[in-house]
Amino acid sequence: MSKEKSARNLTDLLALDVRLDEEQRALKKMLREFSDRELRPKIGDWFESGEIPAREIAREVGSLGILGMHLDGYGCAGSDALSYGLACLELEAVDSGLRSLVSVQGSLSMFAIHEYGSDAQKERWLPGMAKGELIGCFGLTEADFGSNPSGMRTFAKRDGSDWVINGSKMWITNGNIADVAIVWANTDEGIRGFAVPTETKGFKANLIKHKLSLRASITSELVFENMRIPDECRLPKATSLRAPLMCLAEARFGIIFGVVGAARDCLESSLGYGKTRIQFDRPISAYQLTQAKYAEMASKVTASLLLAYHLADLKDAGKIEPEQISMGKYHNVQSALEVARSARSILGGAGITTEYPIFRHMSNLETVLTYEGTHEIHALVVGFALTGENAIK
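RESULT FIELD:
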């Protein structure tokens, strides 16, 4: 094996990129160069301070055509699922918080409007969101209702031609900077969705502080106190819980690719460290135990990427099923966490500092394991598909 091979080549021992077309390779290269130049040098400081210039980043990413890139029309690129997955991979290779910003914008907020909104709502919000000039958030989870969103207490009551909404939402990415909030609420007619301008009276966003994970991401509590909105804010095609669940499936697809990026970055960082860290007159990468860890990590990164590519093929063919997305998230997030932990052990004490990305990835992945459907819920979705027995209820 040539010693001139770079770490980037060594982390793709099966040469999986040969399946990418020229446009996809160009997108991947462009995003990696952008991330290395504009995001990676700053991410450690953003994570340590718990502050991130999210609006500025949204505009920069929007100028690259990434926001809502898998949607058609209204300034969106209409790209294939694999291209969108590659974008998520390269962004999460820097930090899960950056991929979360893009996922919530494109796969949750924009997708909800694109799929379930009126023509007027699409014209009002989507072009500006695609450019990163307008920010969206997605209000489904509540403090007491995460895995069971059907029990949500947020309630929207008709009052003439208006709706009055009371309740709250928790763990909402982009909440404090959003221009529009996609709010899901119970009604006398069942669960409905609303595109709510955040300047609406009765809408309040409280920043969640003191996080030990996803620190380079804005997380909020949304509170609605007699928030009155006209019926034109209602998403007319969202008529049941299926609507927000379909939005979540879009976001989970991005996670399946994104966490491969985090795992790859941990592997690359540990490979670089292992070549320069000398113990007993040899680099630690020359020892059998270290090489065994590298082999295990590389195998997990490669298997996860293969799974992600296959799911992208199914999605582009219109054949993907919810249990397949659940299996992808279940496998890839767990594998990424295991890679991060193994890579951290190679760095020893150096691995817990912000000088290296590994502990930051590991901390972030602990949250990714539980959001967009917990690890346990996805296990039960797969179990249901295998056995026909619903163990969730």
